[in-house]
Design a protein that fits this description.
- The protein has 413 residues and is α+β, with helices and mostly antiparallel strands.
- The strands form 2 sheets. Strands 1-2-6-3-5-4 form a 6-stranded mixed sheet. A 5-stranded mixed sheet has the order 7-11-8-10-9, with helices on both faces.
Amino acid sequence: MEDIIFVKGLKVASYKISGLSSVSLCLRIKAGSWYEEGSDWGKMHLLEHLMFQGTKKYPTSEKLEIFCEENIITSNASTSGSQIVVSLRCPVDSLQKCLEYLTEIVFHPTLEESTITKEKKIIAQEYSDKWSRVEQKFYRKVNQHIFGSSHPYMRDGMGEIGYVEKIRKEDLEETHKNVFVSSNMALGIAGDINNKEIISILENLLPEEKKQVESYKITKTTPILEDVIVEDASQKSSRVILTWPTPGQEDLDLRKRFAISILSYILGGSRHSVLFKKIRGELNLAYSIGTDFVLNPISGYFQIYLSISPDNVKKSIEAIKGEILRVVEEGIDKTIFERSKNFIKYQKILSFDSTSGSASSLSSYLFWDNLYMTPSKFSQYVDSITTDEVIDFVKLFLTNREPLLGILKPKDI
């Protein structure tokens, strides 16, 4: 059944894989750090931790863990700027228990003072570990220049530790009440499942639908058009990032986003890519080189990154610009283009061979685009993209402007 199901406001996309013994669920909640009002953030991450520390029905983390062990349920969760993601896996026979567990931790956490204090200390350890690494500080500076120093897209999912330490129980309860509502969520389920059964179980378990509180509005970004140069004595080589700011999902339809994905693979997605063959294979300038892109709702970026000897930085940047220009002037070889599309297409198809890959992909397209995206629909999109669409993106955003340059290099070189 290739339709989005609505159960008490919750959007659900299911994918039947007959004959498998496991079922996977992936729930995405629009509850990331981007949507925390004011200049401080960290409540969403703390709430994610607290979901697993006790619920009304299972008041301690130990009771929750015993319930999971008895029903062979594995779980994981993460918080980013855009969302909280909860991933579960269980045997087919435990689906009802798995959905019970999911609704308990998401809608009915107890938020006890003692567990709040304990989890704040855990997050402090996470924070210290992350920001003790010079690479993370470098990437943060690069992001500041992409989005602007105080923009919500600058926020990681973890939070600012000084603020996290001050969060009150009342603040968490208010945020949970307003944000953790079914209409603010998207659920993907994959396995040997039955939609009627899923709907019946969810109707019994989900709380009554509530209107979500309007999310904090994210404004346009303001890039800082300056290079980022960071020196560190522990570095033996240079890390270079070239970034071209782009529009976000709101201004790029799905076809344009697929075109960007194909371009990224052709330029730097494999050892056979344009940049790998030129920069490493032919010129021997860099040990590694690749591409990446991020498309947030309001704005995004396209990046080329490489690890390189400090002496080769300038030559490598010029060679990269030359290869990008060559793509525009000479076009993309038809055989390379079709082979790249085929690789991207089958990577997605293969991900649907597993219940976890299927559930994650289903919930992602449901969360971002309100789409039920199957492997066949994905293949149709990829197959329909033309070289002109890919080259148009290069012309618009890569060749008519200088990239923002970020360099992490050894000190005193």
